[in-house]
Amino acid sequence: MNTHAAILVAVMAAVTMLLRFLPFLVFRKKTPPYIAYLGEVLPAAIIGMLVVYCLKDTAVTRPPFGAPELIAGLAVVGLQAWRRSSLLSILGGTAIYMVLVQTVFVA
Amino acid sequence: MVFPPEERCAMKSEIVRKAFLKSLPVMAGYVILGIGFGILLRDAGYGLPWAFAMAVAIYAGSMQYVGVGLLAGGAGILTTILTTIMVNARHLFYSISMIDKYKNAGKYKPYMIFALTDETYSLLCDGDTPDRENADLYRFLVSLFNQLYWITGCVLGSLLGTVLPFPTTGIEFSMTALFIASFTEQWIRTKDHLPAVTGLLSTLLCLLVFGPERFLIPAMLLITLVLTLLRSRRGRKAV
Asked: Using a CB-CB distance cutoff of 8 angstroms, which residues of chain A are in contact with residue B121?
């Protein structure tokens, strides 16, 4: 059982590493303009994708209809726009979320 | 420019300090998520050495969570390969967009590529560095600090088990908050908001169509497609 588990861990590590290294290996010499363009516009798009990814399990069709996520998420946006400090935005937003799910919107 | 050694030393410690400050927002999230992983893995019958090895060698949060299920269920090798590709395909995107930024990183480069997680990516993708000359050292250190937080969390979770001193319900929102903060910062910094809107709407559409279990790959394909179409539009404008 342990040998098989060790093999699985090694496989997960190897495949993950391959995915991370592949673009660097394929476009080693010169980055084609199309890939360079993707590199320029992808970051903003992927961060947008990750925001949705993080919120994918939010239940919007039953109470509290995603209210804690919405309120805390807007707080993060507001704090970031106000002070431009991601540490403050993240700590503030998380604290608000924790208070909301532990006291206001208790399941 | 040539600086006397003591001055260079002072600059180095300044870079370490800046990198540490930059990595701080990730610390809480990684330690907490790591603890969650360590606890799950322990419950599945794999203790400290396994938590440590996976944090060091795989170093991909969501994959490690999925990996607990694979280990517990005694999954086959092919299943493991395919699952890893599905869960981690987005890393191809991160690497593509870092090809230019990491171009001259030299001895730091292999580790920086290995350690390019969602969170490290979101800290470094804006290309903003405090000091051009030491940009690679700075990015290397941010990457390294983040992995140290992750390893610490995974090990702690494995050691602590289920005894935690305060109610942590909701603390997982720190990761969401991290991405929302990056998104906001990105939005404030750039004039062209089309890529950001593309990412948000394409993913949302795919989530609605394909459901929360398998929307990520269609979303990545749709994002690439829309951005490609936007490029040809931009190209025509330029001509």
From this structure: 43, 46
